[in-house]
Amino acid sequence: MLGLGIIGWIIIGGLAGWIGSKIMKTDAQQGILLNIVVGVVGGLLGGFLLKLLDVDVEGAGLFFSFFTCLAGACILLFLVKLVTGRRSRV
């Protein structure tokens, strides 16, 4: 992921944050900027959790980075909903 640079982080983070917000049903509450932030922070969270599990995350490729960001974004959104006590409206 480091080879992509800041533009790559923004694109991958934005997509992962947007898809994660769709999965967690928080998309109506978020804009594009918050989706990017959630995706990038989710990527950091996902990478940290995978390193704790001894998964080699460096050099794993673009798709692995995307799915790491997506999983981290979903975990982050779940934790935010848990702390704030917000329920999703269907």
Automatic annotation (TrEMBL):
It comes from the Bacteria. It is a multi-pass membrane protein. Keywords: Cell membrane, Membrane, Transmembrane, Transmembrane helix. It comes from Antrihabitans spumae. This is GlsB/YeaQ/YmgE family stress response membrane protein. Pfam families: Transgly_assoc. The chain crosses the membrane at residues 6-24, 31-50, 62-84. It is found in: Cell membrane. Belongs to the UPF0410 family.
